[in-house]
Every structure is written in C-alpha cells, then in structure tokens.
C-alpha cells in the first residue's frame, strides 16, 4: 500500500488551525497533533516552577519531564509527568507568556524532535507555526491559514472560560497581535508561509467550508503524488 500523507497546517493564532485540523483529521481517520499545546505545556511548567525568567532552569526542567499528547474522539489530552494539564494550558497567564518561551532554541529543538517522531509514520495532520518550514519541510500538503485580526479576536473571545475572569475583546486583540509579532520575528523558525504552501484566508468562510477546501486539496495531492488517503 502506498504511504499515507503528512499534512502541515500553519498560521496565526485564532486563524482556525485547531478546529480545521481536527475536523480534517477526523474526516481522513488521521492522527491530529496540536504542537501549540506542547509549547503551552512547557510554559505552564515554567510558571508552575516559578522559573519563567531562568532559561537554563526551563531547559533543564523540560529535559527531566515527560510530555505527551493523547488524541481520542476529537479531544487532545495533554500530560506533563503523567498529570493531565489540558485545562491549565489555556489560561490567560499561559497565553501571555507562551511566545516568549517559544523563542528558546533548546526548547524548540527538543519539541521539534518529538513532533518529527510523532508524525514519522504519516497519516497525520499537524498544526502549528513551523510545521511546513521546519518540522516537516517535505510534508505532502502545506496549508497556511490567515484571517483578519478582528475575526481572530472574536473567535478567541468565544473560547474564554468563566475562570479566566473578565477579558475584553481588546485584551485578546492585543495578546494576539503581540504573539503574532514575537512568533513572526523570532530568530529560530519564525512563523511564515512556506513557499510551497497554499494560503487560505478564513475571515469570511465557515469552518465547514475551510475543511472542504482543504479536503479537496488533500484528494488532489494524493492523486497527483500517488499517495493513499
Ligand atoms: O497554536 P497556539 O496558539 O496554541 O500556540 C501557542 C504558542 O506556541 C504560539 O503563540 C507560538 C508557539 N508555537 C510555536 O512557536 N511553534 C509551533 N509549532 C506551535 C506553537
């Protein structure tokens, strides 16, 4: 049987990567990997140990911890040293600090290696910021999702939980813009569209439409490259 595909989805925070990637993976019966959850888990670890400003201590802590993602029935569960931290990694505090943690070279090296192992067998939809450029530069299909800042902020506001306190649309907008800026300008693997990626602006299309557009691309690519779905 021919090899199954590696599908890379990159893009800005709130552009719809997670929802789209998850639904696409479900449709294809592929594994879904949320790499942002891994950078978030490291940020949570640094916050929990109160070592946010101590790069060497963060690197050391990550090396001495086990981080794993479990994906079942459309839900990713994140484990840090066998403890379920899924809810903890979406806090406002993690949101504010995750981009600063993501610039650390040693952390990226460690997480990229893990991501490459997780996707090595194909039949995977992996989403993040550097999947098509660094993690799987030979991915079979590369998608880059964008959306206007207004749309992205509105989408994130709808995901805010009561436990996050009073967060305004402006707070979210500022956080997204700050993260975009750090993610796009960092020295190592900055967020950018790979030259051979297809860009899709999701500002005025529905999730179902996004998934359909990408699914058609998957079928086209599989036929062209002789890969199986
Ligand atoms: O997708 P997300 O919003 O959960 O990602 C959180 C942060 O993690 C994002 O602002 C930058 C970082 N990240 C990264 O640097 N590389 C990735 N492949 C995925 C996420």
Overall description:
- With 229 residues, this protein is an alpha/beta fold.
- It contains 9 helices and 8 strands.
- The protein has helices at residues 17-28, 35-48, 55-63, 92-101, 105-119, 131-135, 149-157, 169-185, 207-225; strands at 6-11, 31-34, 67-72, 75-80, 83-84, 124-128, 141-146, 198-201.
- The chain has a 5-stranded parallel sheet with strand order 2-6-1-7-8, sandwiched between helices.
- Helix 1 crosses helix 9 (207-225), helix 4 (92-101) packs parallel to helix 8 and helix 7 (149-157) packs across helix 8 (169-185).
- The radius of gyration is 17 Å and the shape is globular.
- The model has no long low-confidence stretch (mean pLDDT 95).
- It binds 2'-deoxycytidine-5'-monophosphate.
- 2'-deoxycytidine-5'-monophosphate binds at residues 13, 35-36, 39-40, 98-99, 102, 128-130, 179, 183.
What attributes characterize this protein structure?
alpha/beta; Rossmann fold; five-stranded parallel beta sheet; 9 helices; 48% helix; binds 2'-deoxycytidine-5'-monophosphate
In short:
The chain has about 230 residues and is α/β, with parallel strands linked by helices. The chain has one domain: P-loop containing nucleotide triphosphate hydrolases (Rossmann fold, 3-Layer(aba) Sandwich), CATH 3.40.50.300. The chain has nine helices and eight strands.
